[in-house]
Specification:
Length: about 140
């Protein structure tokens, strides 16, 4: 049988407050933020791929403000594209649906199109490893 989304959601995001979400999603969002900074300044790297668990994809989506409406399926993923525009680098976020081999463009509520990398970093819940560790010992 299928796993109830509400059960899954409660298990990984029980308090539904911004601080809890940042604690859970912050490290992976910070990793994305750091990579976007590098890619926006240096044009050498064409892409970078990370494989991860569904719960981490869930955290990443939640941490960038995307409402997760269904379970993350095996093989699904999130793609961050850096586009160099005349006005500066922008980020486009796509969700990959493995079953149908299709991409869905995601709109970030806190960073409407065109979403500059600077605005993405300011409006998403990144948390450096040092900040995360400090919060553990508060």
């Amino acid at each position: 049988g299928a796993i109830n989304l509400e059960f899954f959601y409660e298990a990984f995001y029980p308090n539904r407050d911004k601080n809890s979400l940042q604690f859970y999603a912050g490290p992976i969002v910070n990793s994305v933020q750091e990579q976007l900074k590098i890619n926006s300044n240096q044009g050498e790297e064409k892409y970078r791929f990370h494989a991860t668990h569904d719960s981490t994809v869930f955290a990443l989506l939640s941490g960038i403000g995307v409402e997760v409406k269904s379970l993350i399926e095996p093989g699904d993923g999130v793609l961050f594209e850096v586009h160099r525009e005349d006005t500066g680098p922008i980020v486009q976020v796509l969700y990959y649906h493995a079953k149908s081999h299709t991409f869905e463009k995601l709109t970030l509520p806190s960073c409407p199109d065109p979403c500059t990398i600077d605005n993405f970093i300011k409006t998403t819940l990144g948390l450096t490893p040092q900040q995360w560790q400090q919060r553990c010992f508060m």
